[in-house]
Amino acid sequence: MNALIDYTLHLADNALILGHRNSEWTGHGPILEQDIAISNIALDLIGQARNFYQYAARLINDSTLQGAKAPSPGGEGVGGEATEDTLAYLRDVKDFKNCLLVEQTNGDWAKTILRQFFFSAYQFYLYQHLQHSKDETLAAIAEKSLKEVTYHLRWSSEWVVRLGDGTEESNSRIKKAVDDLWVYTDELFEAASFELLATNEGIAVDLSLIKNNWLKKITDIFDEATLRFPSREGQAVRWNGKDGKHSEHLGYILAEMQFLQRAYPNNYW
Amino acid sequence: MDTIEQKILSILETVNDPEVPVLSIIDLGIVRDIKINENEIEVIITPTYSGCPAMDAISINIKLALFEHGYKKIKITSVLSPAWTTDWMTESGKQKLKAFGIAPPTVKQQVCHTELFHDGEAIQCPRCNSYNTKLISQFGSTACKALYQCNDCHEPFDYFKCH
Ligand SMILES: [Zn+2]
After folding, report:
1. Domain positions in chain A
2. H-helix or E-strand containing A152?
3. How far apart are CA B13 and CA B15, in angstroms?
4. Can you give the pLDDT of all 269 residues of chain A as single tens digits?
5. Distance from C-alpha of A164 to C-alpha of A212, rounded to nearest angstrom
6. Among A38, A74, A235, A250, which residue is least crowded by beta carbons within 10 Å?
7. How far is A39 from chain B (nearest CA, A)?
């Protein structure tokens, strides 16, 4: 049960944090059509996050009823029932289980595009498997979300090719983005303990099943974009987002995202 | 004599999609079932897109429309599976879209794949009916639409993209 809750929160946090990052582009996109595109993707991701949080809240409340000690419920000191809002707005950095990739700063358009491409390719294969999960609710959310992710993947792939095989300037920017972000892709395929448990129960996706598909997708698009994988020398990531060990960026995201609920609890705007 | 389900259905036909107001929620295909429990009407709907902001408004509008007709206990249940598809849009809905200036979704789900820069699918211009059109952006003014332009009459238009 606890593994299912943690896994659901992990899926939710990934979608929420990337959705929030993308929403930072709203009103600042390079051209109107792409401003609208990235905002639409943000909306899809936040919608997916809501579906996962609603389910997680239900699981947490059920397990609390049964007297079990639920892991990371509404967050420290948050009494009462868990809701999608308490899970998004009242948990702290260490409670968030998103991968480090999604919390990385937007940087320029190339970095945002590449982060989206890496993550959409991951979500695409993940949801393809998750829609056959033993857990019916996760399967339904995955089935629903997969259609949206298909558009995200196509859109971001096209942009990677456009930038990589574009001008000297766009090529140098996307190359820099590859150098910045590549190191965070390992974590996508390193199962956290709750993922292993949930995988054994037939709930979570076995990450080893999707890694090769993901790598092939990246290789194909990189080939078309005339991009190469960077050298890994000297690069090591010290954190593990899925277990709540985040880069410094997540704290800033939460400070902005959670400000209203922290300062004026239960307020609406 | 109409059954109660038919009455409910005809009321739901008056509830419109706030983002594409020419379409009723029945045209849109998001009403999946109507259940009559003891004194309670349950309307089962499914979202078009996970983050569609119209869904909350639609739930409220369903309740309001049924209240107006004297139904007091109303429950709206949202289901995710099977996932909504534009194949569920009614024929009359597609015609209303076209008359409104939005190209209706094509029948075959050709766009729902990951192939890049794919322009094999011809979307018909709702203004001059030309198939000589080009994709401007896969994402339009709302999640359900893409932006196209007609190469013949040069009119930009929304395409209710297949899903
Ligand atoms: Zn035309």
Report:
1. 2-263
2. helix A136-164
3. 6
4. 799 999 999 999 999 999 999 999 999 999 999 999 999 999 999 999 999 999 999 999 998 777 655 544 444 445 579 999 999 999 999 999 999 999 999 999 999 999 999 999 999 999 999 999 999 999 999 999 999 999 999 999 999 999 999 999 999 999 999 999 999 999 999 999 999 999 999 999 999 999 999 999 999 999 999 999 887 666 667 779 999 999 999 999 999 999 999 999 888 87
5. 23
6. A235
7. 9
By the CB < 8 Å criterion, does A206 face chain B? Answer: no
**Taking the model in full, what pTM does it have?**
0.90
Token pair listed for B14: 């008056």
Fold of A2-263: Ferritin (1.20.1260)
Residues of A in contact with B77 (CB under 8 A): none
**Which residues, chain by chain, have CB under 5 Å from ion ligand 1?**
B 125, 127-128, 130, 150, 152-153
* Residue A121 β-bridge partners: none
CATH architecture type of domain B3-87: 2-Layer Sandwich (3.30)
Contacts of A161 in chain B (CB under 8 A): 116-117
Q: Please, where in chain B does CATH 3.30.300.130 lie?
A: 3-87
Q: When comparing pLDDT for A73 and B114, which is higher?
A: B114
> What angle, 0 to 180 degrees and rounded to 10, lies between the N-to-C axes of helices A168-181 and A136-164?
140
The Cα–Cα gap between A150 and B18 comes to: 26
Under 8 Å between Cβ of B84 and B46: yes
Distance from CA of B66 to the nearest CA of A (A): 26
pLDDT, tens digit, 9 for 90 and up, residues B26-51: 999 999 999 998 889 999 999 999 98
Backbone φ and ψ for A248, nearest 5 degrees, come out as -65, -15
Distance CA B59, CA A105 (A): 36
Q: Is A49 helix (H, G, I), strand (E, B) or coil?
A: helix
Nearest Cα of chain B lies from the Cα of A100 at a distance, in angstroms, of: 23
Phi-psi region of B155 (alpha: psi -120 to 50; beta: other; left: phi over 0): beta
A88 contacts in chain B (CB < 8 Å): none
Q: What is the pLDDT of residue A74?
A: 46
Half-sphere exposure of A56 (CA within 13 A, CB side): 31
CA distance B125 to B151: 9
Give the residue on B whose Cα is nearest the Cα of A120. B114
Supply B12's token pair: 């739901």
